[in-house]
Amino acid sequence: MPGLHRVPFDVVEKTLTASLIRHGFSPERAARCAFLFADTTADGVYTHGVARFPRLIKMISLDEVRPEAEPKVVAAFNAIERWDGQRGVGNLAAWAAMQRAIDLSTQFGIGFVALGNTTHWLRAGTYGRQAAEQGRIGICWTNTLPNMPFWGASDPVIGNNPLVIAVPRKAGPVVLDMAMSQFSYGTIEAYKLRGEQLPVDGGFDTEGNLTRDPAAIEASLRPLPIGYWKGSGLAMLMDMVASMTALGLATHQLSLDFLHESGISQVFLAIHPQAFGPDPRVNQLADDIVASVHNARPTKPGTKMRYPGEKTIAIRAENMRLGIPIDKALWDEILAL
Amino acid sequence: MPGLHRVPFDVVEKTLTASLIRHGFSPERAARCAFLFADTTADGVYTHGVARFPRLIKMISLDEVRPEAEPKVVAAFNAIERWDGQRGVGNLAAWAAMQRAIDLSTQFGIGFVALGNTTHWLRAGTYGRQAAEQGRIGICWTNTLPNMPFWGASDPVIGNNPLVIAVPRKAGPVVLDMAMSQFSYGTIEAYKLRGEQLPVDGGFDTEGNLTRDPAAIEASLRPLPIGYWKGSGLAMLMDMVASMTALGLATHQLSLDFLHESGISQVFLAIHPQAFGPDPRVNQLADDIVASVHNARPTKPGTKMRYPGEKTIAIRAENMRLGIPIDKALWDEILAL
Prior knowledge:
Two copies of one chain form a homodimer.
Chain A: E1 4-7, H1 9-22, H2 27-42, H3 53-61, E2 72-77, E3 80-84, H4 90-108, E4 110-119, H5 125-132, E5 137-142, E6 148-149, E7 156-158, E8 163-167, E9 174-178, H6 185-194, E10 203-204, E11 210-211, H7 214-220, H8 229-246, E12 262-271, H9 280-294, H10 311-322, E13 324-327, H11 328-335
Parallel strand pairs in A: 3-4
Antiparallel strand pairs in A: 1-13, 2-3, 4-12, 5-8, 5-12, 6-7, 8-9, 10-11
Helix pairs in contact in A: 1-2, 4-5, 6-7
């Protein structure tokens, strides 16, 4: 890819950390936040890692993200808590909320944190992976700006609300991270930049016809929900659960302006599958299910089935060996931030 | 519709109750089970109500469903429990499991029950509605027989695993009840019986081409997951969470034979949104989100947006007034059971 070069993981981390400190972060929070950016890009989720760093800095300058604001516990009742994110840094708040859900699951078998008034958490899968790496089933989702129409409507009132389900497994977690639109805006943008059509219909054009043209979908702001009416309904319910438990803003109460994506609502759920006592059958079932998928007969001979999150392993290994691929112009921009 | 007639709700209930008692149910369990069948048909979910009654009786005669087996608590740890359904009656076990999750949420703010070794719960939405009517957010899902291929595979190793999310609301709950296939087999069958094509692609034919022909999908056993690879991944993760927490069977360990759909795994989650104390803002948010959907601009002028579960209200009112519509041949069959 032209303009792409590779930067060692620790150089990315140190560069972002220094920039964040210059923008008002304490050293410890800067290091944690920088790690999450670099980690996402190292895992190959290029749309939601370092590429988003300039937007965070911009939002700090607009006072939409407050560098030192810590989430605050607003209410607590045994295994559930309600937090106010105070428009702090989205990935740090999400990490803290999932960690609290994990700790609650140690005590109660399950833990739930609803986080309102927060900002973009960047890669959704990060927080599922966090739970799975600590032996928990992690489930989390966020609402978003109103970036998708309800099924049958033309104006966007629901969000593409990414959903994560992550399951622990000794050989490596299984991590599903999916938006409720058939393609995230990040993916639509990536296809457009490559001059490619989407592999299946991804939305409507401004005339209301289904299309695979990424530019037409960006123009209409009408991405297709997964499963048509089904993903539309699921996005609505995810918005209800997140905003009602967090007492935060619902999607339709937010405006469609990425630089002002502040005040969103998220939920974090951790289930402790070994809370009843250590049991090797839990991991065995995970391995058996993965094997059943790997062994399924492919429609195209010679292709391999991959479980959600599996691709990450090889991509990460390569990126840690060769350096994290970052667009040269982006890296130059970041060096100046 | 030819052959359709209407039977009053209480006649349906009494008829099914009497039949269940003849097949080994105690009067109380028979009445509860009959109610759930009649209730589903009254709500307009014709594929999963009274129409399934003969199959239950058949499965009892095959000893796949044991009329008097009660679910047993295998392990408990604060807010979570693991149950063995002992291959009892699926809808009774699911009702009991969700009720326990609700009770746990009273105590802990959230409750979770994993139920293994159970049988078909019939209408999934029943248990979400049960939670919502008690002021809880209800989330539940089941694994199923291996009735859907993993994305990229031709043989079925995952299930279409219905997912339910229900939210309480004073004016009536919002209940999402959706299978991970674009169309449930029940819906595919209904289109075939009406001689209609599906409104969008619903699966593959035996040649591997996407098709709207319901008969072709029944022949190939290759329904399309919602969102292609996305629904496939979600179904896999739902199977993992259910089987790993219940220590029950995973989809690939079951055989594709509806009369032997025994030993499946389910999860029931109840969240108490008012656990921190009564707060009118919770219901207000639910109403606001519903209003935002109702007020969205329709793509076809004059059409109305409906939230998941909304259709049920009018259908139920009509069915309670006029009687529950049941195919005449089916009703005659039930009278003889």
